[in-house]
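hiii, so i know i said id send this last week but things got crazy w the move. better late than never?? heres the sequnce for the chain we talked about at the cafe, plus the structure i predicted for it. fair warning i was half asleep when i ran it
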Amino acid sequence: MKPELYSTPTIPLLPKKNLYKVLLFAAIAFASFHSIYTTLYRGKGLDNYDRHRAVMEQTTMFYNPWQYRILAPLAVEGVYQVMDHTIYQAIDFELIAKRMQSVNLEGKDDITTTLITRAQNPDYIKYLIVFILVRWALNILLFIVLILYWRLFTDNKYLLYLALLFFSLILGNSVNDSDFSFNTIIDNLLYLFAGIVILQKRHPIYIVLIAIIGSFNRETSIMIPGLYFLNQVDFKNLSIHNILGMKKPITYTAVSYLLFFAIFIGIRMHFGYVPQEQWRVPAGLPMLKLNMLSLVSVKSYFEMYGTVLFLPFLIFFGLKKYSHYLIIGFFYLVPVWFAIHLVMVVAYQSRLFLVPTLLILIPMLLQLVSTESKRLYKLN
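okay and structure toks below
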């Protein structure tokens, strides 16, 4: 007689769907640290303490525009004050700083030496922890919002994951000559939220709110109301009469810009207006020449390749296959964004080109690949 076989029923710790979400979030949380690492070891992350204190004390090196981008510094300072009066009370930062003074720096690389030397200041350690936590939280939020935004252009989840992998590498590459760049990440988030509002046809009051937040954060948010308005225009039946008949889009766009400029000007009146500082060369043709036709341009080309890749050239292969929204973004936001930044700032700060890359160029690639794969599937 064969012995009876007994099996013990088991209950999975997590349903498969929940386990999938946990693993995805864990991957995002880990990937979100990549750009923090590169910021510290390749960028200017170790200088963020001095730059932040300068903004709070109104002694910043580039008063215009750094002093006027107040949202991120105030938010970071708020987090610091909360932690300093709660969690930090249980940690002896003076002792940690003293131990840093006894560390042997012989044989250490420049970055490690700088970090250990500065960490001999207890206040520096406190702020560095805050900087890392805030940037980590912003990166995680950016990943999540990108999933919500990019899935509007493809129903292929594996293609979406591949795009997120590219994004992780892109974000890690875009740290040259930058600190933790909180306002840049917030800028990307605001544009992505605006894109979701436009594509899902949410109430335009959200565009007004985004414009208000953007005006406190960074002047580059100025194009958001324009992106909303252009997406309401029927270009197939374009006429002055039809445009004037767009009372709701005109109203919300006008209110957005009125509030944006009121805050934009108000901040400068509050702190006192200072002409924009010159960095390397004056803005305009000298800056364009520096970015495009100089020894510095070689660095700019490769730093931008690490962020933008070859996407602008690839996109031209399928211009007829993109949605109305992406076509508008490609001919309105992308060229204006690139043109303004190429004549105003040194282009090897490639993080400045993340907005058109994440908002328009990668979605165009996602839509192009999805459309082409469906076409090939039908043929087979």
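btw The chain has 19 helices and no strands. thought thatd interest u
miss u guys!!
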